[in-house]
Design brief:
The complex is a heterodimer. By secondary structure, chain A is of the alpha+beta class. Chain A contains 15 helices and 21 strands. The longest helix of chain A is centred in the last third of the chain and has 18 residues. The chains are: A alpha+beta, B mainly alpha.
Chain lengths: ~500, ~300
């Protein structure tokens, strides 16, 4: 249903792109109104049916993340530029080598009155690392944590030891599924956290109800009651327009264009990424000149206008624009069909057919592939669009097709590198495997001077932009719809502290 | 009659067995398994491989099937590969909304379709018959989701009279939630059913015995109620049993559009996540329900017009 609608929207999009830009409402502008206490806020997220969990360490869906954010907290969170900011850990420092880290805990208490202590942190990290439960999502990102050598230095100081130096360790503690639970936490059905809301009830695939926690350390929430509900895109749109919800997460550009007066769209500009990924070890993309030719062939603005309905910016073949460590000084890649043609002719590809592997796995994938095929055809190369199963696309992309679609949500740039661009990265969709690059990254990550680290990451990113297999053509806005009476909603990338943060909003 | 019922019961068991094998085989043919479905941007291949072991998905399929069948025979539908809870809980949680929806729809459909069918049948090819026929046929040609989108756009988003989704709503607190979903489901079922009742009425009106009864001077009203209606109802009741398919298809669309956490939604989720025990459990319950409905329909037909039992 929603797919049918989005496709219909897609057809009408080209002409309406200008309109979309005209109606664009940016960040929350209603700060003038005086915050008001009380009320109930209903927030709708894409549901996961039976996949939804109340266990904060097993989450992977936005709806779960939102639930857990209300109830639990992490030691560290990510700011709007994806840089770590203190939460339950008020300060941290390392031993000078970024191997041993000390975190001071905030003076706060769980919903049952127990004070937060270092043992809670150690217990939580051990629970995440438990090899008997493979679905604890932070296992791989926290794999270098040496729990045997980590210890409490007092009730409110914890020392965490790593097996290898990592200056980005605080950011890892801000990743998905790193919430701090109580020492001895066993039953996820009875969630007790330190967050701004207390759990009241939970129905898998439907709703969670939570009430304000009055002793919350970071100023108690203004709303009295929070409902987090599950529904697909169409129902989310109807609910927020029909007054059955006050907040709808992850909306489409089509919705943003047609939303009525009762709804305000909050857009986090260019905060995610859409790309084509070329496998650098497979013909014809094992030839760096072919990769470059494809990068030169992409009409990025047109892709953004059509596929994203203008709700985004053009990409520069790199992840993380606007985030900490992004090399903003690199020139934007311009379209150059003639040069691309020459490169492709040299590689003997003119008149040849290449398969692009796509699936309806994410909004815009098939449309982007189809449009890109037209753009590549201008240089005499045919891209044959093959559509696979949407549910298995994430895995299939690793093995199938020499070129395919890729998207990424917000995460710190070093984490993106770790997940996707190292020889042993679990999600290395471009098969980018260069020992020198791995070593350069490991060395950079161990550098304790932020400035020096940043410049080293910059060098790696320049290599990647010029030689890598990622053709990042667009940076979609992340869209949230709120009813006109909701105030205080921040326009920040997903996975950051202030996104979907309901202790700061109020109902006017 | 008894042996007929016995035969039917045996047939039902065979059908169930075949169905459960089919569902198992077909779901096995789907690309990926429950562990792989978790392969998103959070679980690594290594974690997925370990998860597959945890879930027992590395066992050969026939082994898993025998295990599942053994449990099902003792009434245990097994454990969901996704939620880790009993499948029976998923069945129980999802069946309520669908039942309410179906019963509410039928409560409107049956009297409406019978009334329309008789009105049309007794005025065969008259102006009213043709008018109703045109409207119902036109309606039945519109896909459910189109009707749904139009109704939501008009009655919820524009006029604001009725809730647009079940999200954030409680059925007991606001029965208005039912209006639009039922209205969507009505469309096709009323059309199909009323056409059957119409055909039955016309057949009955032309039948020897009715013609004879009319010759004998039995009043029209009595003629219709006593003689025509029961005969006209037979194809109607059989159609009603078949309406199950149409209704289920419609329920799927309606549940998706109005975000109703029902049976169809659970089934689709189960398939999407390759939660085979859940898909099998839901299918089994659905199959039993379908078989019961068909059996009931046959018995009702037999009661209305006993000779039909001999005719089949």
């Amino acid at each position: 249903m929603s797919e049918a609608l989005s496709r219909r929207g897609f057809l009408g999009v080209a002409g309406a792109a200008g309109l979309a830009a005209a109606t664009g409402c940016g960040a929350d502008e209603g700060v003038a109104a005086q915050p008001r206490q009380g009320g109930r806020l209903r927030a709708v997220y894409a549901g996961g049916g039976a996949k939804e969990v109340l266990d904060p360490h097993v989450q992977s869906l936005f709806v779960d993340i939102a639930r857990h954010k209300a109830i639990y907290e992490k030691l560290v969170e990510l700011g709007p530029d994806l840089k770590p900011v203190p939460r339950l850990a008020s300060t941290w420092e390392h031993d000078g080598t970024a191997t041993t880290w000390r975190f001071s805990l905030r003076d706060t208490s769980f919903h049952d009155g127990a004070k937060l202590v270092a043992e809670d942190v150690l217990f939580s990290l051990a629970r995440i690392a438990d090899p008997a439960v493979p679905e604890r999502v932070a296992q791989s990102s926290l794999a270098t944590l040496d729990l045997k050598r980590s210890k409490a230095l007092g009730p409110s100081t914890v020392e965490l030891v790593l097996t290898a130096p990592n200056a980005e360790f605080p950011a890892l503690l801000a990743g998905i599924g790193t919430q701090i639970v109580r020492d001895g936490f066993k039953d996820p059905a009875k969630p007790v956290g330190t967050g701004a809301f207390r759990h009241v009830s939970f129905e898998t695939g439907r709703s969670m109800v939570a009430s304000r926690y009055d002793d919350y350390w970071d100023k108690p929430a203004r709303i009295e009651e929070l409902h987090i509900l599950s529904a697909d895109a169409e129902a989310r749109a109807n609910a927020v327009q029909g007054g059955q919800a006050e907040y709808a997460n992850d909306m489409t550009a089509t919705f943003a264009r047609t939303a009525g007066k009762a709804v305000r769209v909050v857009a986090a500009k260019a905060s995610t990424m859409q790309a084509f990924v070329m496998k650098v070890d497979q013909p014809p993309f094992d030839n760096p000149e072919v990769r470059l030719a494809f990068k030169l062939l992409a009409d990025r603005q047109r892709l953004v206008d059509v596929v994203l309905a203008g709700r985004g910016e053009v990409g520069n073949d790199l992840f993380g624009k606007g985030y900490q460590y992004y090399p903003a000084d690199l020139p934007a890649r311009e379209r150059d069909v003639d040069r691309a043609k020459a490169l492709l002719a040299k590689a003997g590809l003119v008149g040849k057919e290449i398969e692009i592997f796509t699936a309806d796995a994410s909004a815009g994938f098939v449309e982007a592939a189809t449009l890109f095929a037209e753009q590549v055809a201008e240089a005499g190369v045919r891209l044959k669009v093959t559509t696979g199963s949407p549910q298995t696309y994430a895995k299939d992309l690793l093995t199938k097709g020499a070129i395919g679609n890729h998207r990424s949500g917000a995460m710190p740039i070093p984490q993106y590198f770790t997940d996707r661009l190292l020889s042993h990265s679990p999600f290395n969709v471009t098969h980018w495997r260069r020992p020198a690059f791995d070593a350069g990254f490991a060395a950079a990550r161990a550098v304790t001077s932020e400035e020096e680290r940043s410049s080293r990451y910059g060098v790696l990113q320049k290599t990647l932009r010029d030689e890598g297999g990622i053709l990042a053509w667009g940076l979609p806005d992340y869209l949230v719809a709120v009813s006109a009476k909701v105030q205080g909603v921040q326009a920040v990338p997903p996975n950051t502290l202030d996104q979907g943060r309901f202790d700061k909003v109020w109902l006017a | 009659m008894r042996s007929y019922a016995g035969q039917r019961a045996l047939l039902a068991v065979v059908q169930l067995a075949v169905l459960s094998v089919l569902v198992f085989v077909l779901t096995s043919l789907l690309p990926g398994d429950a562990a792989e479905m978790r392969f998103t941007e959070t679980l690594t291949p290594d974690q997925v491989a370990r998860l597959r072991g945890e879930l027992g998905l590395d066992q050969p399929a026939p082994e898993r099937f025998v295990h599942w069948l053994g449990n099902a025979l003792t009434g245990d539908l097994g454990t969901s590969l996704i939620s880790g809870g009993p499948v029976i809980d998923i069945v129980r949680d999802s069946i309520g909304a669908t039942l309410v929806l179906t019963v509410a729809t039928l409560a409107v459909v049956v009297p409406l379709a019978v009334a329309l069918g008789i009105v049309m049948g007794t005025r065969e090819n008259g102006r009213i018959d043709r008018a109703i026929t045109s409207v119902t046929l036109a309606l039945s040609a519109i896909p459910d989701f189109v009707i749904a989108v139009v109704l939501v756009a008009v009655f919820s988003l524009r006029l604001g009279w009725l809730p647009a989704t079940w999200v954030g709503g409680e059925l007991l607190a606001s029965p208005a939630l039912l209006v639009l979903p039922v209205a969507v489901l009505l469309g096709r079922t009323v059309c199909l059913l009323s056409r059957q009742v119409r055909a039955g009425t016309i057949n009955a009106l032309h039948a020897e015995y009715v013609v004879q009864a009319r010759r004998l001077g039995i009043p029209r009203r009595q003629l219709l109620l006593r003689h025509v209606l029961p005969n006209a109802a037979v194809p109607g009741v059989q159609e009603l049993a078949r309406t199950g398919d149409t209704l289920l298809g419609g329920v799927l669309v309606v549940e998706a559009i109005f975000a109703i956490p029902g049976f169809a939604t659970a089934l689709v989720d189960g398939v999407e996540t390759r939660d085979i025990p859940t898909v099998q459990g839901l299918t089994l319950v659905l199959a039993v329900a379908a078989l019961m409905i068909n059996l009931t329909a046959d018995l009702v037909c037999n009661r209305l017009v006993p000779r039909t039992a001999f005719l089949r």
